[in-house]
Write a structure and sequence with these properties.
The chain has about 300 residues and is α+β, with helices and mostly antiparallel strands. The protein folds into 2 domains: about 85-180, no CATH class; about 180-295, no CATH class. It is about 55% helix and about 20% strand. About 25% of the residues are buried. The strands form 2 sheets. Strands 1-2-3-4 form a 4-stranded antiparallel sheet. Strands 5-6-7-8 form a 4-stranded antiparallel sheet. A hairpin with a 2-residue loop joins strand 7 (about 245-255) and strand 8. The radius of gyration is 39 Å and the shape is elongated.
Length: about 300
């Protein structure tokens, strides 16, 4: 009798448990209450849990990669903007790393071309050829790509067809870019001019004895010197030719002290001028480019 009652109770408990489990299963299927409770618990404890695990690590890597990409894109855009605003081809050359490029309008490139020393500009592309291309109306943009030793320049039609392409080496361009309103030092303080410094009067006297083509070779931009609001006292000649050009240094005296203005000249013309100045020295001058009095300056 007792055994029967026990079996009856066990059967009833089993039925009740099965009914409860079945009801919970139906409720979970319809209401997803277990997931909701678990989600609420995880949300409430989210701030206290450590950021660890595969998902967190992948999220951090993705965020870090996005930040790097955004920074690179921003840096590239800033560099492109500076390149498009460059005031000279030398400045543009300094802004671009090898393999980088920039697109300029035809008008902007013509402006930069006009700022080149005439000898260098003519060597790059005849101004008459540039005028012809501009007059035809087909040249719309200019693509400039920095190579390891200069600039590759492509004149493009609207459909990006190449009208002309040419290369400008960085040696003469860098020399032209070194022109400035004057560095605050003397010619002796610039290694390139040591031992080849002459009084200004000897330089200009020898220059006047050359032919017009030779004078233009020595000073492709004489107007740069005419704009100097100070007396030129000495001239230095570099002994290093870069891409067919040689650096000339003109020392001027200002109230704040000596300054040196640098300009490029064509090497063949500068060598002829130097030979003429050395001939003047040998004819009745000191045993070095400058006498002691010349070296001190006025």
């Amino acid at each position: 009798m007792a055994v029967g009652r026990l079996r009856s109770r066990v059967s009833l408990s089993g039925v009740l448990l099965a009914a409860v489990l079945a009801a919970a299963g139906v409720a979970e299927f319809r209401l997803h209450w277990v997931e909701s409770l678990l989600g609420a618990y995880l949300a409430s404890t989210n701030a206290e849990r450590p950021e660890s695990g595969l998902i967190w690590e992948q999220g951090r890597r993705t965020q870090s990669a996005l930040s790097v990409v955004e920074q690179l894109a921003g840096d590239r855009e800033a560099q492109q903007r500076r390149a498009r605003n460059a005031a000279s081809l030398g400045e543009l050359l300094a802004l671009l790393a090898p393999g980088q490029a920039v697109m300029l309008s035809a008008e902007h490139f013509r402006e930069l071309y006009q700022k080149l020393p005439p000898a260098l500009a003519h060597e790059l592309l005849s101004p008459f050829e540039l005028l012809r291309l501009a007059g035809e109306g087909r040249w719309s943009r200019t693509y400039l790509e920095r190579s390891s030793d200069g600039l590759m320049i492509y004149l493009l039609e609207p459909g990006n067809h190449v009208l002309r392409q040419f290369r400008l080496s960085d040696a003469p361009l860098a020399l032209a870019a070194r022109r400035s309103e004057g560095v605050e030092r003397t010619l002796e303080q610039i290694a390139a001019f040591r031992g080849r410094i002459y009084p200004a009067e000897r330089f200009f006297a020898a220059l006047s004895e050359l032919g017009e083509e030779e004078r233009r070779g020595v000073l492709p931009q004489p107007e740069r010197l005419l704009g100097v609001a100070a007396q030129i006292v000495r001239v230095g000649l570099s002994d290093e030719a870069l891409g067919g050009f040689v650096e000339l240094g003109f020392e001027i005296r200002t109230p704040s002290g000596p300054r040196v203005l640098s300009l490029p000249g064509q090497d063949w013309a500068v060598w002829r001028l130097r030979a003429r100045m050395e001939g003047r020295r040998e004819a009745g001058g000191p045993s070095s480019p400058l006498s002691p009095a010349d070296a001190r300056g006025p």
